[in-house]
Amino acid sequence: MKNQAFFLLASVLLICITGCANVKPWEREHLADYTMRGDRDPLAKAQMEHIWFSREEASGGAGVGGGGCGCN
Amino acid sequence: MNTSLLKKFAVATLLAGTFFTAQAALKVGDTLPDFASFKLEGKLPDTLKGKVVIVDFWASWCLPCAKSFPVLDELQKKYADRLVVLAVNVDEKKSNMEKFLQKHAVGFTVVRDAEQKLVAVVEPATMPTSFILDGEGKVRFLHNGFHGEDTRKEYIAEIESLLK
Q: In this complex, is the C-beta atom of A10 within 8 Å of any C-beta atom belonging to chain B?
């Protein structure tokens, strides 16, 4: 009974794993869109960084290279 | 349901997951599929046989693609009828491709894989990805991404080696 439950759980987990979306390089149009950028609004970015600094006593490290398209 | 059946089911699920998520991309030594069977938008060159061909997969939203276009155009002009540059666009919207081409006008052939069927078979690892084919249509060189002058120099060296 215990074995059956284990294999049933393993099977369900495996099915879930295969359901993970794998975004192909040619499907990243929406990820590469300007609106997906976290830093598109300078004022909002400054406010968020201020909140982050006040709360965590740390700053920086929020930037990423590229625009999300995963190019190169 | 007995345990051995569950075990078989688990293994089958794992194998199926592996098969559907990790298909191999086209690599050096392979032959590209026949473009004519993919209903690409735009006119394909009459013949590619006997010519060095650069097949470049690109999209309008990809910044390195914009950087690569002047270089590909330069190569097309330099090698004229000994080289065919065939750029395959993978944009979802045709208007995005057209806007891009208005801004980056080029003299080489551009077609659009509107249904994204060719690109799904070729599976380029990045945008852009370019394949350099020899006169027999075999992939001889592969470029993932575009890295400015380094890639340009590599293109020239590779084209020259195939034209010898």
A: yes
